[in-house]
Design a protein that fits this description.
The chain has about 375 residues and is mainly beta. It has one domain: monomeric porin ompg (Porin, Beta Barrel), CATH 2.40.160. A hairpin with an 8-residue loop joins strand 4 and strand 5.
């Protein structure tokens, strides 16, 4: 019974949707890829090239150098598998501070709890309650290299506590790791067009660069969810009160594709052993050209999203987005809606997801929340 429960936990934590294709890529700690804030969730799970906010740490920490407020604090909550259980969810907390006009630092915490699980060896024995969880603690520094472009580096400590100590498993402990992000953000000056002003945005982030994660000494090692995320956007500044932001984003998982190395027609344990021998850095470079079906399959391993955000008097926001992933590589397809309400220094954000895939999303019919406090002096970056 214990083994069944533990396998169930690992399946929930290791892949958001079930896959029939043996070449679907799985990684350790996939909670890092879940949108932890309601604003990005309302925009179709994007944030690398959107305007700066206090939740930018997950998506693109380079944006903090362009922050228009001296400090910001934010918290967010995302229920998970809410239609089945009510104690699984992702919590996030963030803080950033502008050091000066050109630089900023930020720290954040993401905590993914799988609730309480009762484990027992047999049906008749008294069960023990365990609380599996995973967390990521981040720190970043961002710097403007000129008036329109900034870069940032972030470090991330990760703990994945999915094994539990008992008489049969006395050496159980959380798997830990450390990863690095390298990000950049471009924001043009306002440009005067015939009927409106406009501003271009672009960003990239290579996230979760780090060694593979293992739960047992000498056991199977799992790739981190290393990602290359990039996007472009444009702000239609219609007048002093109204603006519309259009953004598109693409994401490529920098993890090698599972292979039939011995060409026996099936990906088996021997193929998995050879797959495990690929180092994380080697895997990053292999990920651009190792798909067995060539470039067409590489494109299937790239997700894309498109979003629009309407802002009225910097106090009321309406958002929508669409996210698409190949049916052979995850099958996540959904529309999202969101709204934001700002009053003085506080802002509340909400979002809702509508799945358009045949595979039910664990975030289906989930209302996500975010709360931000903008503190300190207001800054201006033209």
């Amino acid at each position: 019974m214990k083994k069944i429960a533990l396998v169930t936990l690992l399946l929930i934590a290791s892949k958001m949707v079930a896959q029939d294709d043996d070449r679907a890529i799985t990684t350790a700690v996939p909670f890092l890829t879940i949108a932890a804030d309601a604003r990005s969730a309302g925009l179709g799970d994007m944030g690398v090239a959107t305007s700066v906010d206090a939740f930018s740490q997950q998506w693109n920490p380079a944006k903090f150098a362009f922050a228009e407020q001296e400090m910001g604090i934010s918290v967010g909550y995302t229920p998970y598998l809410e239609s089945i259980v009510n104690d699984i969810g992702l919590l996030s907390a963030n803080f950033y501070n502008k050091i000066n006009d050109r630089s900023a630092f930020a720290v954040s915490l993401r905590y993914f709890t799988l609730g309480e699980i009762e484990l027992r060896q047999t049906a008749g024995e008294e069960g023990s309650i365990v609380k599996p969880n995973e967390l990521a603690l981040d720190g970043s520094y961002s710097l403007k290299l000129n008036e329109t472009f900034s870069m940032a580096v972030a470090g991330r400590f990760i703990s994945s506590n999915l094994k539990f100590q008992d008489q049969a498993n006395v050496d159980a402990q959380a798997a830990t790791g450390f990863t690095v992000d390298i990000a950049g953000f471009y924001r043009s000056r306002e440009i005067a067009y015939n009927n409106f002003d406009g501003r271009w945005r672009a960003g990239f982030n290579v996230s979760n660069l780090g060694n593979k994660l293992s739960y047992d000494e000498g056991g199977q090692e799992n790739f981190m969810p290393t990602n290359l995320r990039f996007g472009v956007g444009f702000d239609f500044i219609l007048d002093a009160d109204n603006a519309i932001a259009i953004t598109s984003e693409f994401n490529k998982l920098l993890v090698p594709t599972p292979q039939d190395f011995d060409e026996d027609g099936v990906i088996d344990s021997e193929d998995n052993i050879e797959y495990q021998q690929i180092g994380f850095l080697e895997g990053v470079f292999k990920s651009f050209g190792d798909a067995p079906d060539g470039f067409s399959e590489e494109l299937k391993e790239t997700t894309w999203a498109l979003s629009a955000e309407y802002v009225y008097q910097d106090a009321f926001m309406l958002r929508t987005g669409y996210f698409n992933e190949s049916e052979e590589k995850g099958a996540r397809k959904f529309f999202s809606l969101g709204a934001g309400f700002k009053f003085k220094a506080a802002q509340v954000d909400l979002s809702y997801l509508f799945s358009t895939s045949n595979v039910t999303s664990p975030l289906e019919n989930t209302l996500r929340f975010g709360l931000t406090f903008n503190l300190g002096e207001e800054l201006y970056n033209d």
